[in-house]
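subagent[fold] <- orchestrator: predict structure for attached chain, return tokens only, no commentary.
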Amino acid sequence: MSKPLFARLKDDLEDIPITVEIEAKFSPYDSGVSSGPVERCYPPEGGEMENASAILTIGEGGSAFRLYFDWGAFSRLVGPHAAAKWEERLFEAAVPLEPDYDRLNDQARDDRLTGDA
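subagent[fold] -> orchestrator:
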């Protein structure tokens, strides 16, 4: 079985000092088999987003203000169409989760707190 996937995206909105950071974890993904003997073919499975969060940073430097959202709240904020586009981008950027996921989370948190993100 494949490992869960992890993705992190960061975008700056045009001409506005707003940064969007999203992290997501996806269930293991199997691309399936669509060629060969019929008895060995099966559709893709997995790849569902299991856990996601978003951080909106408004402003720059010491005057920046951060808002933290779970995926449901972020989806309602940006609307279903934009949320679906973000989810698609996250899945495309996803990589297998490293065994030391806790270290990655700790580093990401530290980066956000120190402004190195």
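orchestrator: received. Logging for downstream: DSSP finds three helices and seven strands in the chain. The mean pLDDT is 78.
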